Amino acid sequence: MAIFLKELLLGLYLLIQHDYYRERLMALQGGVPLVLFAGMFAVLLVALWLTAHIRSAPVRYLFALLFFASTLFFDVYTQVSAEYLTYGTFVSLIYSGGFIDEALYQYWASILVCAAKALPLLFGIALAPRRRLPLPGIALVAAPLCALLLLTGILFVRGGVGARGLPAMYTPLAYLNLFAYEAASSTVGPREAVSLPRHGQAIGNDIVLIIDESVSGNYLDINVEHGVRTNLGQSPPGATLYNYGYAAAIANCSADTNVTLRYGGTRSDYLRINSTMPSIWQYARKAGLRTVYIDAQRTGGRLQNLMSKSERKEIDEFVQFDGTPVRDRDMAAAQKLIELLGNDTAELIYLNKIGAHFPVHDKYPDDFMIYRPALPRGQYADISDTGERDGFGGQAEDWGRYRNAYRNTLLWNVGEFFARLFARARLDNAVLIYTSDHGQDLHERGNPGLDTHCGGDPVVEEGLVPLVVIQGHGLHGLDWQGELASNRNRSSHYNIFPTLLQLMGYDLTALQAVYGKPLSLHTEDEFTFNTRFNARLGEKANWKFIDLNEVVKPVLQ
Ligand SMILES: [Zn+2]
User: Fold this and answer.
1) How far away, in angstroms, is 531 Cα from ligand 1 center?
2) How far does CA 32 lie from the centroid of its chain?
3) What's the rounded Cα separation, in Å, for the pair 531 and 545?
4) What is the arithmetic mean of pLDDT over 389-412?
5) What is the mean pLDDT of the segment spanning 226-241?
6) With 60 as the cut, is the pLDDT of residue 57 above it?
7) How confident is the model at residue 426 (pLDDT cuts 50, 70, 90)?
8) CA 529 – ligand 1 centroid, Å
9) Which of 250, 277, 249, 252 is nearest to 263 (CA)?
């Protein structure tokens, strides 16, 4: 019996964690992925067993402690958050500052339980081996190192993904290797303070960035004949409206676009900039602006679009509409914006609207059901956005109804939103920039599928967004008109962050060197969007050019 003590202890450890491994096994459902997974699992397990037979006691103790600490980290995170520890989360944990103190204090009970569960692993490796394996000592020491290197390599190629369900004691150690690589190549690091010089004043009053949700540029009357009425067709009282026509989005997913709009990532350097450079809030505060974030999509203080708790602290006023039905949230946002524009305080206001994300069945009131036949009503009234597609068939007829419901939604959440804003807001001392996070695939070509955006092989319309600037008459803002004709239908989201910095009075030459061109200059933009945004480590971003000749002109049916 004693001769199998190590095997028993290691087996016991795996048995205690069986839920985690079984879950992954169930999700794989056979085939090649299952074979590859099983092969990798076996390699890691054999390496673990060899580790337990290392002859030098100090070296064996060292590995025992490393694996013990690693699995403890993994298990505590899983238990506390009820989520799988991804590489991205691992990196944020490292940078979330002093989290170890806080975790020790808050989660000591979980840590004790997890430590007790990991003891069989610790002793399974550390105890003196009762048998001598017929292998050279150096091979035994090399085994865990090679296994770890192999796992690290696989994760590297796959951008950090692929360790789920594999023996957990390797995962944080492999993440640590990836992290060391990224730190050495400066794509991760502590966030920098603002260092750009300012030589001008920020414009007189508010700077407002309005990010709509899933509003495709080719459904709006400012860009196409028979488009949905937006009320952006002419300048509102007290201000001049500049329509930049079609613009390219940053990416075809909400979070990717929003995090880049908040941090200013460029096409060539967005991973580094988004994770290590100052946020738009930091720049705004440095320029003397109060910072306001209005999130019409989420409630209860929940953060989204890759906003962290530390970024949240840079926001002076954080607004969500907890008691307001989804249908009325954009109107509540308009009301809030009217108040902020009239409060005589210079502010940066960043608004995430409800817009027209799936489901669009119930995002507009009955009075706005102008386009028919639309999707059936009444089942999605409380849902801001979802990945579920229950009750939506995805046939040509369903998509016809979808497009009509989408138009009705735009009529309300875009047209009525701006009608109310323009009727009551003080616009003379503000600059507003309006765009959407990404466009939509509304399956006008009859292509199959249920999704509207965020896929890996998108249609051009998924990256096609509106871009409008509204500047009040009472301030010395930027010269938009000068390059309007050359920038129209040729600019992108990537030009917005530098525009915001220029409005805040940051030095034009200095800001361009880091963030590229603002809309006040000839943008010479590439007019592409990123279809593989999470391209860290061994992966490369994928840029899709928007050929405007390819863009569908929606027809009414
Ligand atoms: Zn979105």
Assistant:
1) 14
2) 30
3) 10
4) 90
5) 97
6) yes
7) very high
8) 14
9) 277
Closest to 280 measured CA to CA, from 297, 254, 259:
259
Q: Return d(Cα 413, Cα 393) in angstroms, integer.
A: 25
Strand partners, 240: 471
Cα separation, 64 vs 52, whole angstroms: 8
Helix 329-341 and helix 417-424, axial crossing angle in degrees, nearest 10: 20
How many alpha carbons lie under 13 Å from residue 286 in its C-beta half-sphere? 19
CA of residue 393 relative to chain centroid, distance = 28
Report the alpha-carbon distance of residue 361 to residue 373 in Å, rounded.
Answer: 11
The yes-or-no verdict on residue 99 having pLDDT over 70 is no
Distance 286 CA to ligand 1 centre (A): 29
**CA 354 – CA 361 distance, rounded (Å):** 13
438 CA from centroid of ligand 1 (Å): 6
Q: Compute the distance from residue 406 Cα to the ligand 1 centre, in Å.
A: 14
Query: If you measure from the C-alpha of residue 307 to the centroid of ligand 1, how many angstroms do you get, rounded to a whole number?
Result: 15
Taking alpha carbons only, the member of 131, 133, 130 closest to residue 141 is 133
Angstrom distance (rounded) from CA 86 to CA 537: 14
Report pLDDT for 205. Answer: 85
DSSP 292: E
Per-residue pLDDT band for 505 (boundaries 50, 70, 90) equals very high
Tokens found for residue 35: 């074979």
Q: From CA 347, how far away is CA 142, in angstroms rounded?
A: 58
Structure tokens at 418: 């701006």
Residue 226 has pLDDT above 80, yes or no: yes
Identify any residues that bridge with 350 across adjacent strands, giving them in sequence order. Answer: 209, 293
Q: Percent of the chain having pLDDT more than 70?
A: 98
> DSSP character for 13?
H
**What confidence score (pLDDT) does residue 98 get?**
47
Signed CA dihedral, 153, 158, 163, 165: sign only: negative
Structure tokens that stand for 65 in this block: 């402690």
Two tokens, residue 183:
């730190």
Contacts of 467 (CB under 8 A, 6+ apart): 243, 244, 245, 246, 247, 433, 434, 435, 491
Considering the chain, what is the average pLDDT of its residues? 93
Bridge partners (DSSP) listed for residue 319: 294
